[in-house]
Every structure is written in structure tokens, then in C-alpha cells.
Design goal:
The protein has 3 helices and 7 strands. The chain has 140 residues and is an alpha+beta fold. The chain has one domain (22-136). Keywords: Signal. Residues 1-16 form the signal peptide.
């Protein structure tokens, strides 16, 4: 009897820990000859709904606010809270996504509501991005 009660208690606790996935995703993309590739995942956020004009607008606004606030409008030399410059953070993110070498690429910010399409929000890095083996350096 007690065994059943304990198992049911664990089952109830496990069910209460289900995490709702984020509805808004932001990322920095660069162009390569075969198309666009994501080089950096920005912070995901919750917005109300999926696929509605309102939820898509809220997601785009979230990405714009994050880019202008935390990332200082794409200033690659701006120091982030973790001590890295934005350029270095983008290069580290690119390595995590299997893109260790980037040469003279303009980063563009895109937003995606739920499983919809990535939408360009007309914001990007303030100068071209160059990475060698995950290390940021000035292009030249």
C-alpha cells in the first residue's frame, strides 16, 4: 500500500515539472554561398501564442529589445556581462554550431515564433565579423 502511495506521489511530482517550451527564438545569422546559417542563439522568451500576428510581433519586439539592450545594437567590441566582447561571444556561439571560421560576415538578427519561419528584423552587427577557430579578431 505504501509503495503505491510513494509511486503515485513521485508520478504527481514528475507531472508538475513539465517545462513549457519557449515560443520566441532569436538568433544571429550570416550569409554563406549556400544560404543563411545561424551562428549564435540569443535568449529565448515566452510570448502569448504561436503563429498569430500578435505573437509574431511580440517575438520580433523581444528580439529587437534584446539586441538594442544587452547587445548594444551589434557593437562587436561591447563587453557583455560575462566579460567577453560581443564579437567573441558570437565566435564562441559559431563554434558551438560547427562554424569555427568566419571571414568578413555581416551578422543579421532573425526572430522565430514557435516553429514558424525565421524572420529578418532588420538589425545586425555594426561591422563585419571575423572568427578563426572560435576567436574573434578584427577583419582586415
Amino acid at each position: 500500500m505504501w509503495t503505491s502511495a510513494i509511486i503515485l506521489s513521485f508520478a504527481a511530482l514528475t507531472g508538475a515539472q513539465i517545462i513549457t517550451p519557449y515560443e520566441c527564438h532569436c538568433g544571429v545569422f550570416i550569409s554563406i554561398p549556400s544560404g543563411e546559417i545561424e551562428v549564435y542563439h540569443m535568449q529565448s522568451a515566452h510570448v502569448d501564442g504561436c503563429g498569430t500576428p500578435e505573437s509574431e510581433a511580440a517575438c520580433m519586439d523581444n528580439c529587437k529589445n534584446e539586441w538594442t539592450g544587452m547587445y548594444k545594437n551589434g557593437d562587436l567590441d561591447n563587453e557583455l556581462e560575462n566579460g567577453y566582447s560581443l564579437g567573441q561571444e558570437l565566435c564562441l556561439g559559431a563554434v558551438e554550431l560547427f562554424h569555427p571560421f568566419i571571414l568578413n560576415a555581416n551578422g543579421q538578427v532573425f526572430a522565430r515564433n514557435c516553429e514558424g519561419n525565421w524572420e529578418d528584423i532588420d538589425m545586425g552587427t555594426n561591422k563585419p565579423l571575423c572568427c578563426t577557430g572560435g576567436h574573434y579578431h578584427e577583419c582586415g
